[in-house]
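Sample pair:
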Amino acid sequence: MRTSDLLENRLARLLRKHGLTLTQYNVLRILRGEGKPMPCLEVADRMIQVAPAITRVVDQLLELKLIAKTQSEEDRRVFMIKLKPAAIRLLSRLDQPVLDLHASLLKGASQADLNSLNRILAAIRDGIED
């Protein structure tokens, strides 16, 4: 948990320089990865950290003019969100600094150690019941 906190804090500092929180960045990355509009609740399900208030995060991103939100035509209870061009540009500007930060933070571990750590963490996650 200590290591996770240290890594998370460094990434949060980088994102703060660009006006984003970790949660907002996570939402934007999910949307970019999907490449098309997604229901808000599906985005929430894919998040790294549980976001009990996905509506609040979506509202923040709307206010920053980074996403657009529309009501689904198939189900009026569902709201779809998608990236705006400003978000795509912001994520593109962040890609290399985030990669550089990851490389800097993880330089103390070999690739083999990182692969092992990934396998171990995945096994732990798989063993945890919801």
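The helical segments are 2-16, 22-34, 40-46, 54-63, 85-105, 111-127.
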